[in-house]
């Protein structure tokens, strides 16, 4: 009953909060329904979080290793499951035994948030895979001037400029507010 009510609230939020596409506020768009449901289940992961990393201790090489380790750990720690066969495609979960791209992306984001990364640097992004036309979720990580992609379809962390050969970005979280989504790549 509570789960049903949460789903209904998420649907109402998506439908009533803003138009599907707007020219205001950096081309703000409605977040995916799955994201709205995720935020009801995991509200702490959807709040703005400041950078808690110790900047002096951690070199860019150490941060790169942390990204690579989390990407690899999550990619191998969750068994892939096609969306129709999973418990429900619309429900992203942290640390499921098996899951789809949404589960991989939110788990990676969750681990990086717990490691002290700021929410403004960890942006979920809905993309379309060029080869198949399939909608897919990845995690974009801003590290200095670079934007890196953590993807369950790739064993390595990839710079966004290289990954754009494989997919097109439809929408992503705004770096200013984790609850808002945008179409503008420049805001990533």
From TrEMBL:
InterPro entries: Transglutaminase-like_Cys_pept
UniProt cross-references to Pfam families, sorted A to Z: Peptidase_C93 (PF06035)
Listed name of the protein: Predicted transglutaminase-like cysteine proteinase
Organism: Bradyrhizobium shewense
């Amino acid at each position: 009953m509570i789960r049903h009510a949460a789903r209904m609230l998420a649907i109402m939020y998506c439908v009533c909060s803003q138009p599907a596409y707007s020219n205001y506020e950096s081309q703000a768009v409605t977040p995916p329904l799955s994201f709205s449901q995720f935020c009801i289940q995991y509200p702490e992961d959807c709040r703005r979080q400041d950078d808690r990393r110790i900047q002096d201790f951690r070199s860019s090489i150490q941060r790169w290793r942390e990204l690579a380790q989390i990407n690899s750990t999550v990619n191998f720690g969750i068994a892939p499951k096609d969306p129709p066969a999973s418990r429900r495609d619309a429900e992203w979960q942290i640390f499921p035994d098996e899951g789809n791209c949404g589960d991989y992306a939110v788990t990676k984001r969750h681990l990086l948030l717990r490691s002290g990364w700021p929410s403004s640097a960890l942006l979920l992004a809905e993309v379309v895979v060029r080869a198949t036309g399939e909608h897919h979720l990845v995690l974009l990580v801003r590290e200095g001037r670079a934007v890196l992609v953590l993807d369950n379809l790739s064993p390595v962390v990839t710079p966004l400029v290289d990954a754009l050969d494989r997919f097109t970005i439809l929408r992503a979280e705004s770096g200013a507010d984790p609850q808002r989504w945008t179409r503008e790549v420049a805001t990533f």
